[in-house]
Amino acid sequence: MKIGVLALQGDFALHGRALDRIAVESAEIRRAADLDAMDGLIIPGGESTTLLKLMEAGEFVPALEKFHANGRPIFGTCAGLIVLAREVLSPRQFSLGFIDVTVERNAYGRQKESFESEGEAILDGEPGPLRMVFIRAPRIRRLGATVTRLAAYGGECVMAREGSVLVATFHPELTDDTTVHRYFCRMVEAAS
Ligand code: GLN
To answer: What is the 3-state secondary structure (H, E, C) of the chain?
Structure first.
């Protein structure tokens, strides 16, 4: 199993390190053609408008549509979630629409722009505490009926899944806890 980490912009290196810690092979993806050899893909946090521009310049949109249509799992954190969402607010911008959620960018307000806190993960049935780092994070304002809630913070969904697409508003690569990366790797294993 080999997981690609989109390395156009943002904190891709830390996702590679998280995968190293759980002994999963990964590769930094800089060209759309590199996706062909991957079983799953992580789209990291960063700045979604810049990320989109680089994705469009590198002809990633059709390549990602094919990757997704082939059932290969994709995990988007923060800006990664924003590019995967069905609808983006504040401001509106293009997104891939692979998961039926509406997200609002930078939605925690100025004084809470970046913070670390404890939320609750419900990844494998049993709810458990999970440290979460939010950096100018979006908030999920609407979840489609076929989207599953996997974690909550302050009573709000902060991690969700629809089929082969996993998203989180926080940054699991910034804590030592590998629970979320292990969960994604199980999705990839099950799909390959
Ligand atoms: N605020 C960024 C955006 O709207 C996302 C921040 C992040 O990825 N940490 O694109």
So the answer is: CEEEEECCCCCHHHHHHHHHHCCCEEEEECCHHHHHHCCEEEECCCCHHHHHHHHHHCCHHHHHHHHHHCCCCEEEECHHHHHHEEEEECCCCCCCCCEEEEEECCCCCHHHCEEEEEEEEEEECEEEEEEEEEECCCEEEEECCCCEEEEEECCEEEEEEECCEEEECCCHHHCCCCHHHHHHHHHHHHHC
Which residues have any ligand 1 atom within 6 Å of their CB?
45-48, 78-79, 82, 105-106, 135-136
Whole-model pTM?
0.97
Structure tokens at 177: 């806890």
Class of domain 2-191: alpha beta
CA of 153 to the centre of ligand 1 (A): 18
User: Does residue 78 carry a catalytic annotation?
Assistant: yes
> Which atom of ligand 1 has the smallest separation from the CA of 51?
10
Establish whether 157 is a catalytic residue: no
In the chain, where the domains are located = 2-191
What is the per-residue pLDDT across 92-142, written as a single tens digit (0 to 9) for each? 999 999 999 999 999 998 888 999 999 999 887 778 999 999 999 999 999
